[in-house]
Specification:
The complex is a heterodimer. By secondary structure, chain A is α/β, with parallel strands linked by helices. Chain A has helices at residues 12-23, 61-74, 137-145, 162-173, 192-199, 259-263, 301-321, 396-400, and strands spanning 2-8, 29-32, 48-50, 59-60, 78-80, 84-88, 93-98, 101-112, 116-118, 127-128, 134-136, 154-158, 177-183, 206-208, 210-216, 223-228, 241-244, 247-250, 254-256, 288-290, 328-333, 337-341, 344-346, 353-359, 363-371, 376-384, 390-394, 405-413. Helix content of chain B is 31%, strand content 22%. Chain B starts with a strand and ends in a 22-residue tail after the last helix. The chains are: A alpha/beta, B alpha+beta.
Amino acid sequence: MNRDIVVIGGGPAGLAAAIAAYDAGCKNVLVVERESEAGGVLKQCIHSGFGLTRFGENLTGPEYAHRFLAEAEKRGIEILKNTFVTGLSAQKEVTCMNESGIFRIRAKAVILAMGCRERSKGALNIAGTRPAGLLSAGTAQKYVNIKGLLPGKRVVILGSGDIGLIMARRLTLEGAKVLCVCEIMPHSSGLRRNIAQCLDDFGIPLYLSHTIVEIEGDTRASGVTVAAVDENKNPVPGTEKHFDCDTVLFSVGLIPENELTKRAGLRLDGRTKGAFVDGDRETQIEGIFACGNVLHVHDLVDFVSEEAEIAGRAAAAYVRGGEKQKELIPAECGENVSYILPQSVNKKESGAQKLFFRVKRALKNAVIEAETGAGTKVFRRIAVAPGEMENIVLSAEELVNAQKVKISVRGEQR
Amino acid sequence: MFDVAVIGAGVIGAMIARELARYDLRVAVLEKEADAAAGASRANSGIVHAGFDAAEGSLKAKFNVEGNRLMAGVCEELGVEYKNNGSVVLAFGKEQEGTLHTLLRRGEANGVKGLKILSREELFEREPNASRNATAALFAPTGGIVCPYGLTFAALGNAMDNGAEFFPDFELVRAEKGDTLRLFSADGREIEAKYAVNCAGAGAAKIARLFGDTSFTIGARKGEYILLDSAADGLVKSTVFTVPTAAGKGVLVTPTVDQNVLIGPTSVEENTFETSIRRAAFAELISKAKAMCENIPFGETITSFAGVRAYCDRHDFILEESAAAPLFNAAGIESPGLTSAPAIGRYVAEKTAARLGAKRKENFSPKRKSYFFFRKLSDEKKNEIIAADPDFGKIVCRCESVTLGEILYALRANPPARTIDGVKLRTRAGMGRCQSGFCQPSVLETICKERGIGPLEVTKNGKHSEIIAGGEI
């Protein structure tokens, strides 16, 4: 089989990329989806808060996904469901497996949109037993929202990522008692609005700089011991608190699912855990693009869609005209910046370019400096936080003589 | 009425049952947990030891070397993953180098083939990530690795395919001796047998006492492990040991047959038979492993677990008929128990068959069909299987590429999986880097459909380990 563009993954990134590629003139697009329905993790995100930036509307996850599914359907974009991509070569040969067997698709361009997975409890080296009742927040979300099953009645949540916060509220609404949310960092990695709406509104305590040090229970979980941690994340003796619970939820980070990316021979950025890309979201292999949570973990799907459209348009342009002339300059992380995406910028681009980045610490009255070697541009924000991705826009004029883009953020401690 | 009741479905019980199934005997396998391989056979280093460690003339030495010789063939017949990756014992300094020579001589006396002392350079050529502080090493080319629970399921399954019957959740609480043995479970079931084999691992002394046999006691040593994702594959080729001490063989760093890297075990003398991990275990494992190997990617840790190793007060295997009852004790099978299992199975079955005057069956089939290697098959072979059964084209566990076909096979083939862990250990669904985050709800649903039970009845590993404790919404 031959295709102009193969999009791997039919979640929000894959759908938006396919639609954008189609609209940019590349009609021969195939989306490969491993599940029986496209839409990705949005299918189980039945809470609202999606689309505020993009549509100016407060949508649920399935509603947000539906908008893109409807657009894809309108264009007749083919989505191959129940199909698992098992291999990807640097020559853009995509190996797939489904009920009809194993087959290969030769693509002119490939868009990686596989999303991310949750970091598991196993990675945390927590002492104690390994009973039933320990699950990731996303798994609990699937049980509750898709399967109609309540994992437990008394719950402790480790990690204050957005899914954990959302699930604290969701489980409470379904009748479970959420005893607390523990966060090992001195700040939450979740959105401020989620802390207010999911914890504060329900009186669920958030223990910052706390972690679970021991899990109890032989068959089903029966309790956990929680302790405060010092600045090196080591438990402080004497601060232990015990909670009787039958369930422990882990919301301890998301990891881009880049097994295929690695198989194609691409190196990953240790900071984003995704591929290195330029402003077109083109990876270091010509004609392979990446977007969405496989590239770096986003906190708002609205930005996923925006990024995927960049990748989709660029892939269509690549199919049409081949690799364009690029003069790449690096994006460098300055003070208080944990990563920048894209990792490199094409200074030959005719339009303005948006750079996304995350800060390391929460600050107020933040001053963002973008230093290009040809000048420094300053941006201001009332507040910045690690859980909320920031972006700045640099015009073509500001980039034309640049040698790099170094972003630094300074401000007052929050 | 059974001829033989095998008490305990660990790797020893499973191997004994399989060997007994070669004879014209009705065999029952009794297991107190919901599944086979629930004790030490589940949480185990998975090493096929060469045999240089056990004392000359001991049963351990004899069965280790014999088991090592049999292992590859048994795994081939049963469709179990086995790899002859070799073992390396590191020495740090002159004194330990002396110990290597002692091990070499002992191994040769035990009949271990191919042992060789490696210079520092030869060691690094073989194991580039071995500690720079190592000064020499003992290399044992016959050392290997095997999946310990895979071997247990396969041996028990093969025994069942040849007529043995498996009774999970049968916790033996009373044994009546008369013309025959009457064996009672905690939940009121009864099984009658002419003869019993005690291979109850950590519970072996307790079982022996039910038969009036107080000739030995069993102690428990806890071993904690951490497991790294297959992304760490290639860190070491061989199983890497340090020189043994009185506490045992110490922490090892080894590849597994599933391309993970396993680090452990610790050795905690607790005698509580429980399997919780101590808070101090992680720092201990990490520092010991770092002293053995360079460049260990601890960031790839995907899980940690503990197992209990049973040992007996005689410090050798007990393989003898009880003086108190028609009972054969296969007890105190501490390391190298897994390696010895094929040889112990054969030995105990021969003794038992002779005792009961049983003849060999003509229709015994030693082969077991396994789809366990599906992900490792060629595309052509996979296509053949998918064409015959499209469920093999549906991936359920994305991290380990486990298909629905394999999960259904695990739920149907002997011994059938009944729990989430049962499916996991047979297929690897949930054993990868996401640790069942994505696939568990699908596996749960498949178990429900296949077994005709509701979602609230599905357990992780048997009694009271329900996955869903909050009810249906």
